[in-house]
Amino acid sequence: MRADSWAFQSDNSASRVMERTGGRLACSTVGLWLGLLLLCSWGFPGGAEPRAPPENIAIIGAGIGGTSAAYYLRQKFGNDVKIDVFEKGEVGGRLATVTMQGQEYESGGSVIHPLNLHMKRFVKDLGLSAVQSPSGLVGVYNGETLVYEESSWFIINMIKLIWHYGFQSLRMHMWVEDILDKFMRIYRYQSHDYAFSSVEKLLHSLGGDDYLGLFNRSLIETLQKAGFSEKFLDEIITPVMRVNYGQTMNINGFVGAVSMSCTDPGLWAVKGGNKLVCSRLLQASKSNLISGSVMSIEEKTRTKQTGNPTKVYEAVYQTGSETHSAFYDIVLVATPLNRKMSNITFLNFDPPIEEFHQYYEPLVTTLIKGQLNSTVFTSRALDEFDLSTVLTTDNPDLFINSIGFVSSVEESNNNPQPKADRSHVWKIFSAEPLTKEQILKLFVSYDYAVKRSWLAYPHYMPPEKCPSIILHDRLYYLNGMEVAASAMEMSAVAGYNAALLAYHRWNGHTHMIDQEDLYEKLKTEL
Ligand SMILES: Cc1cc2nc3c(=O)[nH]c(=O)nc-3n(C[C@H](O)[C@H](O)[C@H](O)COP(=O)(O)OP(=O)(O)OC[C@H]3O[C@@H](n4cnc5c(N)ncnc54)[C@H](O)[C@@H]3O)c2cc1C
Ligand SMILES: CC(C)=CCC/C(C)=C/CC/C(C)=C/CSC[C@H](N)C(=O)O
Asked: Could you give the CA distance from residue 104 to residue 1 in angstroms, rounded to a whole number?
């Protein structure tokens, strides 16, 4: 790390960089003084004073993307900048819970992968704790019968898998592992403060043309080319895509791999609810939460106290029946840009900021406390039915994508066993709301049913282009990342990236943006 590249950073990140450089320079006070002396004698690069931080930053959306961006923006720009976070609904966005008989259950984003390091770090740094996600036995139903059923004996499972599908399950696991390994490179890039101006450049930096190719091609095309059989794709891969993204194997290969990684062991969630991460990030970033809906953004010229005319963005927003406006140096949009989800108008930009018509898949989460009618899936009675999740194949006659039993956000449940009574809460994913008749088909009887409808994930249709991260000079968009894959960790990566990008562009650190061959360059860095 060159002296000039960290000299301008806020106290926080400078000390982090120094921590990383370990014994070489940072530990020694002598080194620090030497560094300062050198800076004084060389002056700042270009002879210019470091630029003062922005006065005001707006973030639209208090989901995990917006709140993680607030957290990292505070780290980068320091304490003098005012950060306003606008939220028209609940803090957490698609991380949300529903309450049943006094217990809360995740109704949106629920599971976190053990290698999702940003989420892991948030939980640790924000004083939260993790609970293990239920990991019981899974079966696959094709509308007539269970075509695959896991066994509680590891060895039997292996034999079953090999008997049905040869070594394809193992090959699939290796394929996903390789993609995840490369994905982990982003943490190294971000810890060294590197940013990307487009999602495509970010993906390319992780594994070159092949990695970007995953995003540009459908999962089915990639897996067929790799020689996976129709039977394996229909009975194992499709059901996993249906439970996770409510879609078929026509999604892109990258999101397909992200989805497959949910079959890894060790999935977890935040005790008390995943949305707690968002409220804690807001608190830790000392942001002001404004409960209101942003309606428009327009660039304006204002004369600040310094007397200089400055370009700022005016955000017009509504709180209740009142309309207000405020001015910002930097704006981050942390919500999908489309009429149904955010309805933000960009006024008088030249060239105009394109409207994204990204279609988000409707999905319904229904939570039901009741006694499952196991005979829908098998001739066995519930007391002999040991599956905790039933996935489904792509059969148009089926009205659910999946059904599985869940624990409340307070419980850790490593080895759940369905009981032949009404005490379990089951989570069902379906494309449309379930009718009473459909619920009564699935349950012998039930006490409670609560549903939550979502526009859940982008409808994936490769090849497609990710929307720009830079919408205008100091106006950034985070949710283009979801076009690669939608997951909490992806939004956290997007939040960090947008914060770094905004910081570097504000300070003219062009060498920290879109660096090629980063993996090679950072190989020897600690
Ligand atoms: C049912 C379901 C299950 C899921 N399961 C998982 C899972 O198990 N694991 C996982 O990793 N991911 C999961 N996901 C995906 C994950 O939840 C999302 O990718 C992630 O939460 C998106 O976060 P975000 O901050 O980018 O967007 P959001 O959470 O959508 O946040 C955007 C926020 O902006 C607000 N907003 C919109 N417009 C405006 C406006 N004009 N003014 C002010 N505020 C505005 C919205 O109200 C919202 O709160 C799931 C999603 C769903 C729906
Ligand atoms: C970003 C990386 C590398 C990994 C993230 C893996 C992950 C946790 C993806 C989430 C996929 C997703 C949208 C799942 C939705 S359903 C989840 C669960 N089956 C449930 O029952 O709620």
From this structure: 46
Distance CA 207, CA 180 (A): 11
Cβ contact 408:464 at 8 Å: no
Rounded Cα distance, 201 and 325, in Å: 35
**From ligand 2's centre to the CA of 207, what distance in Å?**
22
Domain annotation for the chain: domains and CATH numbers: 56-92+274-358+462-525 (3.50.50.60)
* pLDDT value for 158: 94
Over residues 241-247, the mean pLDDT reads 98
Average pLDDT score over residue span 418-430: 80
Whether the CB of 329 sits within 6 Å of ligand 2? no
Q: What is the largest CA-CA distance in the chain?
A: 83
This complex has an ipTM of: 0.99
> Which residue minimizes the CA distance to atom 12 of ligand 2?
244
Tell me the best of 244, 262, 360, 488 to mutate to test the pocket of ligand 1, counting ligand atoms within 8 Å of each CB and taking the most. Answer: 488
The two structure tokens encoding residue 335: 């919500």
Q: What is the pLDDT of residues 286-341, one digit of tens each?
A: 999 999 999 999 999 998 777 889 999 999 999 999 999 999 999 999 999 999 99
* Torsion of the alpha carbons at 162, 164, 169 and 170, rounded to the nearest 10: 10
Please give the span between the terminal C-alpha atoms of the chain, in angstroms, as a whole number.
Answer: 11
In terms of average pLDDT, the best of 217-226, 301-310, 406-415 is 217-226
Q: Which amino acid type is present at position 220?
A: I
% of the chain beyond a pLDDT of 70: 88
Residue nearest to atom 47 of ligand 1 (CA): 89
* Cβ–Cβ < 8 Å for 194, 518: yes
Q: Please, where are the H alpha helices in 411-473? A: 436-442
Q: Which residues pair with 317 in a beta bridge?
A: 294, 324
Report how far ligand 1's centroid is from the alpha carbon of 488 (Å): 8
Six-digit token string for 371: 């006694």
Q: Measured between alpha carbons, how far is 357 from 245 in angstroms, rounded to an integer?
A: 19
Ligand that comes closest to the CA of residue 279: 1
- Ligand 2 pocket residue status of 332, Cβ below 6 Å: no
Give residue 384's pLDDT band: very low, low, confident or very high (50, 70, 90). Answer: confident
Instruction: Identify which ligand lies nearest to the alpha carbon of 487.
Output: 1
Tell me what pLDDT residue 305 has: 75
